[in-house]
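User: Could you check the structure of this?
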Amino acid sequence: MAGTPARGQRAEHGAEVSHRTIHGYRRAYRIAGEGPAILLIHGIGDSSETWAEVIPELARHHTVIAPDLLGHGASDKPRADYSVAAYANGVRDLLGVLGIERATLVGHSLGGGVAMQFAYQYPERTDRLVLVSAGGVGREVNPVLRAVSLPGADLMLSTLRLPGMRSQVGLFARLIRLLDTDLGQDADELLGLVDALPDATSRSAFISTLRAVVDWRGQVVTMLDRCYLAQGMPTLLLWGSRDSVVRVRHAYAAHAAMPGSRLEIFEGAGHFPFHNDPARFGALIEDFVRTSAPADWSQEHWRELLRAGRPGSTAGAEDPAFGRAVGRGLRETTERGAT
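Assistant: Sure, the predicted structure tokens are below.
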């Protein structure tokens, strides 16, 4: 296995990419700082680089770990299991290799689903949850992602690499920004995801990951069937008011379904609120960690919650119509949510 940088060698204002080989696959990650651990989990098609503006501030008081999930960034991209549960296991294994017992989990988009799955599978290793524009609350998702989950998606993505196509897509992105659409708020980041798929191996890993969580009808994995188990888990929800990928109404549904959670909305921001205002984002996480005690997991309490089961729907307490819609989505996704 490749070596981990010693604590004293970690960059003060950033984190170099390091590698470890786990189960035969090379895993890339960034690590910086000292103190209680914060784990940053990126979204689909992204990489640890997405946290570049956030890591230095958080690393002032914490050990910050930002992995490239398998199939993403500088990590290997094998033909493998790209389910949310498998990613949670991969996060556990990386933390184990690095000798980190517990962490506050910060997950964006798909990474939010991975963070929730990790907290469900390994509550004794989870201090807090920070869910950023997270998937897994309801079925609704951007139609582009539903389209990419269909057969033939690899051909469609490969055409975007043809000469001249990148400039045409760039023109379209500039147009939707000029029209001040919600999708335009995330145009640059979404174009970056296309650029991060330079070859067939990368595209295959991306499509496999997407199909594990999205089909033609929308999201197929939900956390609402198990969010009652987060009782006692300090949870912070961060969302952009103009998120075109996972709409902000999902934030309110998650907030209602997780009593005691804290909700912060970034007005005018899209799907990447930590890009719009990294200083505020970092300050909110620092404040959340400082003002909340780590979760005190109890096996007996966990057992009691499981035996009691999911209570009557609390999702949608602030928006009954959306609560009913989420309830329908929950019933429809049960077969995929019950991991």
